[in-house]
Specification:
single chain; 184 residues; mainly alpha; 4 helices; 0% strand
């Protein structure tokens, strides 16, 4: 199964997750997402620090070069003009990285909510299955009791109708000991 490298989507697509491991899986995913969040924040701080250090060095170079413009002045002027442009490009890149990180955080929260909802609904479904299974067991027990009562009633009816036939024959005088033995 290919999930595009997204662990939480893979977990949601699996049908064979055992109920015991759901909490462990949710904790693992939340810890992984938190770890990703923390490392991304640290990376962003390092990038910001690097950009600001680079900016300070660039400004220092500009001040130094302003005082030393000579025959190579045009080349230095070009470098001086390019350095602020590079700073601007780096600032835009930091801004883009921040936006990407914010989007990742939103997705992390969405996935965590989806996982919680999935686990909750699975728990509810398991409870409903247990309840229905209990009702089915009760119904099966009642059905078995009813079947036994029906069998007993049929047996009683057969015994009663056999007794009725014997009694009516004896009253009419048609029943003799020999015939009763032969009939049996």
């Amino acid at each position: 199964m290919f999930c595009g490298g997204d662990v939480s989507l893979c977990l949601l697509q699996r049908d064979s997750i055992e109920a015991n491991g759901n909490d462990e899986i949710a904790k693992y995913v939340e810890e992984a997402l938190t770890l990703r969040h923390t490392s991304t924040r640290e990376l962003l701080k390092l990038l910001e620090h690097t950009i600001y250090s680079h900016r300070e060095k660039t400004e220092s170079m500009v001040h130094t070069l302003d005082g030393k413009i000579s025959s190579e002045g045009q080349r230095f002027n070009y470098a001086i003009i390019q350095l602020p442009k590079i700073d601007d490009m780096m600032e835009r890149e930091v801004k883009n990285l921040r936006e990407a990180i914010d989007i990742l955080h939103v997705k992390q929260k969405e996935y965590a909510d989806v996982i919680r909802t999935y686990l909750s609904s699975q728990s509810t479904d398991q409870s409903e299955i247990s309840r229905i299974t209990g009702e089915l067991d009760d119904s099966m027990t009642e059905l078995e009791e009813s079947r036994r009562k029906l069998v007993n009633l049929k047996m009683q009816k057969e015994v009663a109708s056999g007794m009725h036939n014997l009694t009516s024959g004896a009253v009419n005088g048609t029943l003799s000991p020999e015939k009763s033995t032969e009939g049996q």
